[in-house]
Write a structure and sequence with these properties.
Structural class of chain B: mainly alpha
Helix content of chain A: over 70%
Order of helices and strands of chain B: HHHHEEHHHHHHH
Distance between the termini of chain A: 17 Å
Helix content of chain B: over 70%
Largest interface: A-B, 45 and 49 residues
Strand content of chain B: under 5%
Oligomer: heterodimer
Low-confidence stretches of chain B: none
Radius of gyration of chain B: 19 Å
Structural class of chain A: mainly alpha
Chain lengths: 319, 300
Amino acid sequence: MKAAALGRPGATALGPWALGALLLLLLLALPLAGLDAYWVYTATIGFYYALLAASWSLLVGYVGRISFAQAAMAGLGAYASTLSILHLGLPIPLGIAIAVLVTAALGLFIGWLSLRLHGAYLGLTTIGVAEILRITVTAEHEVTRGSLGLQAPALIEGGSRTAYYYALLAALLVSLALMGLALRSRVGLFFQAIREDEDGAASLGVRVTLWKVLAFAASSAFAGFAGALYAHTVQLISPAMMSLQEMGFVLAMAVIGGFHNIVYAAIGGLALQFALEWLRAIGEWRLAIFGLLAILMLRLVPNGVCGTIVEPLSKGRPR
Amino acid sequence: MSWLAIGEQAINGLVVSVFYALAALGLSLIFGVLRIVNFAHGELYMMGGFAYWLAVSTLGVPPVLGVVGAAVVLFAVGAVIEILLVRPVYTGKVDRPDEYAIMITFALAVLLQNLMLAVFGPWPQRPTPLFRGRVEIGELIISGDRLAAAAVGALLILLLLLALRYSWAGKAVRAVSQDREAAQYLGLRVRNVSLLAFGLGSALAGTAGALMGPVFNVTPVMGVIPVIKAYVVVVLGGLGSIPGAILGALILGQVETFATVLIPDTTRALAYKDAYGLLVLILVLLVRPQGLFGTRERRA
C-alpha cells in the first residue's frame, strides 16, 4: 500500500503477492484447522469451478474471444474420461489425459473453424456447439445413461474428503501456474495484442491465426481437465453440467471475481461456490443475486471484486 | 407417408414457423438497430408468458387483453433494460463494447431466469388459451389453441411489416439499421430509435411468450429452447434482416418437422430434433456469416 501511495516508479508491488500467499496458506491450512467436512467438500467443488472460470478467463479476458461452450467442454471432459475408463479399462490418470486430449482437439477444431468469426457471431457458434454436445450426451442414453446420470470411478479409491480437497487444490494450482507462466511469457503479450487490435498485431508479425486457435484449444483443454476431475470427485455426472444455465453460473463467477485475470476469475469461482452453499436458505434467490452482481460488475466495476481490491496495490506495474 | 400425413406435418411445421418467426423478429430488430445479439431474449419471452399468466389466471383478464398486456409490460421492461444496460454500448462508456454487450445480456438472462424461479417456483403454469377445441380441415385435425396462437402471431407479424414499411417510426428504425451515422446526420434521434427498437423487440418476445405460454406451459425455463431456435432463424436469414427472419423461420419449421419424421428410431429422432437447427446455425455462420439476406460486414 505504501509503495503505491508513494508512487515509486518500478516498485515491485508486494501487495498482490502477499495477499495471494495469504490466501494460499489459508487454503492449505483450512482442512488441518478442523474445517467441517461439509465445507471441505464445498471447497473441493469450488476448486473445480475455480479452474473452469480461470480457463474461461484465459480465452475471454486475454484474447477477447467469447465462448459459451466452456461448461459443455467440462462436461465433454467428464464423459470422455469416465467412458474411456469404463469401456477401455484405463487407469484414471490416463482417462483424465484422454479427456484433456479430446477437449483440446475439439477446441482446436472449433477455434480453427471459427477463426473468421467475432463477438456475437462467435458467441452464437459456441452456443450451437455447446447445445449439440449436451443434446448428444442426453440422446445417446445407451452409452451415457442420459439424464439419469453416469457413475464415474473414484479419483482416490477410498479417499477421505481431505484427500480430495488437496488433490483438486493441487490440480488447480498447477493449472493456474501453467496458465500464468504462458501468460507471463511472450504468448501473453501476443494474446493481449490480439485482443486490443488484431490487424495491428498481425502487421507487427504476431501469428494471429496460430495464437487464436491455440488459445481456444488451451482454454478447452483446461475446462476438460476440470470436468474430468469433477467427474471422479463427485462420481456422478449428468448432462446438466453442460447446460447454458451452468455456463451462466461460470460467467457470473469469472465476472464477479474479475475476468481479466485468471487468478481473480478462479477466486470468483471458489467464492461463489462457497456463497452458493452458505446461502442455501434463500434458494433460487442466490443465483438471481449472482446474476445481478455480475450485471453490476460489468456495468460499474469491470475489473471485478479482486481486481478492484488488488489493482490499487500494484499501481505503476503493467498487468 | 400418405399425402394426408405429409399435409398434416407441413401445417404443423407452418404453425411452428409462425412461433419461431415471432420470437426471432424481435432479436433481428434489435440486432439491426443496435448491432448486438440480445442473449436475454429467451427470458423476455418467458416474462411475456408470466405476464399473460398473471393477467389471465390471477387477475381474470380476457385472454386477448392478456396478450396485449404482456406486450405492453415487456415493452416497458425492454425500455428499462435499454436505458440501464444497453445504452453504454453506443455512448462509448465501456471498453470493448462488443464484449460488454454479449456478457451483460447473458448475465441478464441468468438474473431474470433465476429471479422468476425464486418468485414463482419451477412449477409449470397453464393459463387459459385464446381458443379451445379443434379445427378440422377436411380430414386434417389441428388443435385450436395452437392454430389461434399462430393466426394471431401471423397477424402481428403482418402488422409489424406494415408498420416498418409505412409508419414514420418504422422508417426511422430501418434507416438506423441501414446506416446509423447517416441517419444521425440527417437528424434522426438515434438514441430514441434505439430505445424504440429494444422496447419493440422485447414486446415481440413477450407477445410470443404470451401466445405460446398456454400451448407449451409457462415456466421460468420456457425461453431456453425457443430462443435457441430464434438464434438459428436469425442467423439463417441474416442477422438484422426482417424478411430473412421470416424465411428462416419457415425453413426451420419444415426442416425440423420432416427431419423428425424421416428418422425411424422415434425416441432418438425426438431427442435430436433441437440439434438440426444448431447444425444449420453453425454451418451458416461458417460458410456465409451474413446469412441469406444479411448485409456483409467486414468482420463477422
